[in-house]
Amino acid sequence: xxxxxxxxxxxxxxxxxxxENGEPVVIQNSEGGRTTPSIVGFTAKGERIVGMPAxxxxxxxxxxxxxxxxxxxxxxxxxxxxEAKLVPYTVVDHGEDCRVEVxxxxxxxxxxxxxxxxFILQKMKKTAEDYLGEExxxxxxxxxxxxxxSQRQATKDAGKIAGLDVKRIINEPTAAAMAFGLKEDQKSxxxxxxxxxGGGTFxxxxxxxxDGVFEVKSTNGNTHLGGDxxxxxxxxxxxxxxxxxxxxxxxxxxxxxxxxxEAAENAKISLS
Length: 272
Prior knowledge:
By secondary structure, the chain is α+β, with helices and mostly antiparallel strands. It has 2 domains: about 180 residues, Nucleotidyltransferase, domain 5 (2-Layer Sandwich), CATH 3.30.420.40; about 45 residues, ATPase, substrate binding domain, subdomain 4 (Actin, Chain A, domain 4, Alpha-Beta Complex). It is built from 6 helices and 15 strands. Strands 1, 2, 3, 4, 11 and 12 form a 6-stranded mixed β-sheet that branches. Strands 6-5-7 form a 3-stranded antiparallel β-sheet. The chain has a 3-stranded antiparallel β-sheet with strand order 8-9-10. It starts with a strand and ends with a helix.
């Protein structure tokens, strides 16, 4: 039986780990990073790229570079509350859910959020296989505690498309508490609060730990609040300031807008 991998499928970044000698080991990707940007790009040559190579083309090819897809997974188009209009790529209504429309080999092609997520999961699967030297077919994937049944099922579907048998979907705060519990004294009872502020989601769980058993007592959160929103506020401030100084509206220029997004994210990281 092959090893089961654990995947954190994040809004901004994803990572993959495996248990070795009773300890979780985060696996480096082919670029040498412990995390992989959750970004999928479609190049002018008809290639599909994932992770850092996709992030590198965000400025020059914003309409064909899909990021923050986790914000759309398991949602109908009318549930997105205008979110679809805030990204540079095209999101269209598809009845039961939504689709991302990109140019691929000169033709328009639509992908579901599950398919885009599957491309990211395939990258994580390949990262694990390169490290382990064997095929991987089973995984545990984490989701925000506040994800509903539709979002959880869509995440499982993404795993299936990626060629993974998803053994379990685990709440991200629970996974963090389990990691904490593995290193701490598990005999004493304790109640802990776990906050998880990610790129697109923010949630909290109250968890009781006793005799190595983790019980989620309460959970709440916002699936549309995260680092992306901080970036967007900084970008909007930069656009307004530049327009006030020069009279030029950068929001109409997709390449300038992407440069601003990158600069805003870098500034946030540097100041955090």
